[in-house]
Amino acid sequence: MAFEAFSLELMSMAFGFCFFTFTILFSLFSLSILVLRMKPWCNCDVCQTYLTSSWTKDFDNLCDWYTHLLRNSPSGTIHVHVLKNTITANPDNVEHILKTKFDNYPKGKQFSTILGDLLGKGIFNVDGQTWRFQRKLASAELGSVSIRLFAFELVKAETNSRLIPLLSSIAKDQERVLDLQDVFRRFSFDNICKFSFGLDPGCLNLSLPISDFSVAFDEATKLSAQRALASSPLIWKIKRLFNIGSEKKLREAIDMVNELAEEMISQRRKTGFANHKDLLSRFMGSVDDDKYLRDIVVSFLLAGRDTVASGLTSLMWLISQNPKVEDAIRAESDRVMGTSQDLVSFEQMRDMHYLNAAVYESLRLFPPVQFDSKFSLEDDVLPDGTSVKGGTRVTYHPYAMGRIESVWGSDCVEFKPERWLTNGVFVPENPFKYTVFQAGPRICMGKDLALAEMKCVALAVIRKFNIRAVDPDYVPRFSPGLTASLRGGLPVVIKEREVVCL
Ligand code: HEM
């Protein structure tokens, strides 16, 4: 026995030594690949500031530094050579990338590899024919009136039975601080799960532990996004091969997401899907392959979850900072709904132009997707004369665009819903200038659902409560990730309004 233990120890030492040597060699190898891929010798100011992170001396967020650079660029375009990334805030360039030369600017292999384990061949993660097939399939479903009504009813139910009671209970204790971002994340996860799978994870019930599925989904998106931050993709690929560190956690999280998805699909196959209204049941009519079904639905979960939560959080923060906007929303809703009705109807919402303008305006300043990249297939020249090499990254930047005078005028940094109204009527803008939902053939498929959800929730909350940030000098600081999320959340205090009923 002692000999066996000794040989085992020797073997493990030998393995440890090999692994150590391998790690050193591998690090040197990745470093050399990194040197070749990133051109870290670039000496231009932008690249040096990026490489040394010295932008952090003047800016809280990377997106604010990029905004500063794009504002000062005469063409509205900059290059970060070390990342081989052309970043633009010029609407003509954006139209060229997203529409005119759509086929030359796919999402690309780099993106799909990073999210491939989580999203598989879901719409969010594919290009070409596979994308076209799913886009057509999903457009037919999402375009129907019945799904819009179904989605709206889900939002109303979650608002009425969970969100408002939760906020009311918090409001009773005037000292209690609530993280509004956390509440909206739970709310939107419940909602998108019911919409996509017909499953209610019950995350908004704060007294219950947050569901394992939600935790696993969070972990899986966070760790997948972290892959993009690795200095070379080889680093995470090797970790994945050996199933170690963050890649081990990612695999476990994805396994959990898969288990639940498979369970939902097999249950639905057994019980029949014809009478269900959720997306999974609708897609089951056209797709037989269960793995493909899982991929399609998980893409929707990712697309619709944090985006809505992020949009709602910044909307409520901006409104809390702008009591005149808050009053105008309340006055408009009193006119359309009266003062005693709790939740807005779909038809009533159509008459609320000011509310619509406020939501568009908050997304303009705080887009949940702050920037979005494509990869050029072939060499190209953008309308402003910028050359783009084939195989390099091109990024449009909705966050910066919202803060550039040449795009939105001298008052661009102000929260001003009125800019969207002509004689009190909402007038939409050029989608290549307002790129919050992307634009062109790949424009967000959930845009109308997301706007309806945000308006319904915001209205219900604003009519019943006064919400104020705990820190009156709060400045948004973002965490890195696929969707804009506030570092430290949004701590608020809530008071119930005294409303005089008619
Ligand atoms: C305020 C909320 C939302 C914002 C700001 C938003 C924004 C975006 C953006 C920028 C894209 C393009 C991403 C890319 O190609 O890399 C996108 C794509 C997409 N979004 Fe949304 N989204 C929101 C909510 C939703 C919701 C609620 C759903 C589903 C119910 C959804 C479904 C999708 C889908 C399926 C795509 C992929 C479209 C395609 O590739 O053809 N989104 N969204």
UniProtKB/TrEMBL annotation:
InterPro entries: Cyt_P450, Cyt_P450_E_grp-I, Cyt_P450_sf
Segments traversing the membrane: 12-36
Known cofactor(s): heme
Keywords carried by this UniProt record: Heme, Iron, Membrane, Metal-binding, Monooxygenase, Oxidoreductase, Transmembrane, Transmembrane helix
Signal peptide residue numbers: none
GO terms assigned for molecular function: heme binding; iron ion binding; monooxygenase activity; oxidoreductase activity, acting on paired donors, with incorporation or reduction of molecular oxygen
Protein name: Cytochrome P450 family protein
Lineage: Eukaryota, Viridiplantae, Streptophyta, Embryophyta, Tracheophyta
